[in-house]
Amino acid sequence: METRTEPIRALLVGAGNRGRDAYGRYASSHPWRFKFTAVADPDGARRARFSAEHGIPEGRSHGDWRALLSAASPGDLVFVCTPDRLHFEQASAFIDKGCAVVLEKPVAASVRECAALETMAREGGSRVVVCHVLRYTAFFSTLKALLDEGRVGRLVSIDLQENVGYYHFAHSYVRGNWRSAERSCPVIVAKSCHDLDILHWLAGSRADSVASVGGLAWFRPENAPPGAPARCLEGCPARAACPWYAPALYLTSDEGWPASVISDDPSLRARTRALEDGPYGRCVYRCDNDVVDHQHAVVRFKNGVTASFTLSAFSADISRDIRVTGSAGEIIGNLKEGWLELRDFLSGSRTRVALNAPEAGHSGGDDAMMEDIAAAFEGPQGAWDIRSRIEASIEGHWLAFAAEESRTAGRVVMMDEYRAGVAESLAGERSDGYPHGEP
């Protein structure tokens, strides 16, 4: 069989943080593997910057993604890195055209749209990759291998904690693009669908039931300090005692994330203007946010494994901690610090595994996923063995939406019933084969 000798022709929809800084950066440093040949983004500055970095001519740089769709050819690889509520319309259009799609998580903003996209990919034989980059980290890859080798005996339970980081949560989920479930989707979907995917992947089974509790405890108007204005730069009397005081987060000498997000111009003057006029300068207690700042979910899988997941805004570090228990031992670990410790019950030994993974790019997961995609395209025609293909990794989305259903309805969600209800809903509303619009 013939193998690919030219770089993979790639198209980008959305030249923001993920599109440019993760996937565009990888292509720039691996030009023999990927070549971005067209881009679509409504922001002219972002579009022009990405085009200049990748040598994209003006005629293949578009403000409207539909122009990119018209120019795409079957077999092109399209990266969809746009706001959550645009994913379904854009991904389904490129799938219909015969393109392969790399889709940022979450796959879509409703469980019905997620289910429909998975059905489209499976029934149409389309190649769709979900950016569940945690699967590709050395941390979780090594943990999965240890479990598959039986190093803890029979797997019993998993406890995963996602510490979002006080400043990260305020940036993205109080002031930022994911602050509203209506504009984006619930935080357990937007932020943690790939954590729940990890639970499914490690457990090696589909879920039987999900229960969840949580709420918006702190970032509310009634918790604002006395006299706090609508914006931090309007003379807040509590600025010295507030961890979320915007100038301390965005107007320092550090021009990297999150400061890089608030303005395309990194100058201090431009960032100051962004705080004066944009969403990132608002008091965290006076925003239009409604997503929860803490949530807990408990999952029972069909093979008997149980798992718990905790998401919290209230942590000093951005990190993930895990504890996996089995009949013969346990494994604990910290993703940010890059270590796992295997504890054997019989011998009493404790073996520390140092992973030496980079902290950037989701601990190396971004680049490893790109390498997996490249290997699939560079291999024999027709080969498609991607670790995070949609058929293998959509379960994390099912779990996330079911957890939110449990939290809001105050009940345990039985997954078979939940899936059947979604399937019945889809069947009842299809007119052209797949749903469109709001959940």
CATH superfamily of the largest domain: NAD(P)-binding Rossmann-like Domain
Question: What structural class is derived from the secondary structure elements?
Answer: alpha/beta
What is the CATH architecture assignment of the largest domain? 3-Layer(aba) Sandwich
Please state the overall shape, judged from the principal axes of the Cα atoms. Answer: globular
How many domains in all? 3
Characterize the main sheet: 9 strands, mixed
CATH first level of the largest domain: which class? Alpha Beta
By DSSP, the count of extended strands is 15
End-to-end C-alpha gap:
44 Å
Unreliable residue stretches: 431-439
Mean pLDDT: 93
Q: Could you tell me the radius of gyration in angstroms?
A: 22 Å
Beta content: 15-25%
Helix content: 25-40%
